[in-house]
Design brief:
This protein has six helices and three strands, in the order αααβααββα. With 135 residues, the protein is mainly α.
């Protein structure tokens, strides 16, 4: 999720390819400028860290896992995750504040769903990554 996409990440160089890190380390101006343009800005990195910090809660992640499959009202979500409705409502307010969850009203009920396809894609990518076997 860089500001500017670059080549795919390569963990090791190809056979026979030398790394260009020398001691003492001296950066080439054009290379350093390019890397600086391609890296996250400090402001965006801070915003991303705060955003990801909100996700560092198991209950929020459990709620997201349910909403990744279907929209639900607070009462059904509370039953599904084994929490009281007040606690689920609190978590949903947080998830709405960071634009991961949206809602729609139908009569007296409010139904919650993932905000958009970006949130679902992000969720699915993290699950897929965690399910990969360790090297």
């Amino acid at each position: 999720m860089l500001d500017h996409p670059t080549e795919p990440y390569s963990e090791t160089p190809e056979d026979g390819e030398d790394l260009c890190c020398e001691l003492p380390h001296t950066a080439h101006a054009d290379s350093a400028d390019r890397l600086q343009r391609e890296s996250l800005s400090s402001e965006k990195a801070q915003r991303m860290a705060e955003f990801l910090g909100f996700l560092a809660d198991p209950n929020r992640l459990r709620i997201l896992s349910i909403l990744a499959n279907q929209e639900m009202c607070v009462g059904d979500l509370a039953m599904a995750v084994g929490m009281n409705e007040s606690a689920v409502s609190h978590q949903l307010r947080t998830l709405r504040a960071i634009r991961l969850v949206s809602s729609r009203k139908q009569g007296r009920h409010v139904f919650y769903r993932l905000q958009d396809h970006h949130v679902l894609s992000f969720y699915e990518a993290v699950v897929e990554h965690l399910d990969e076997p360790a090297d």
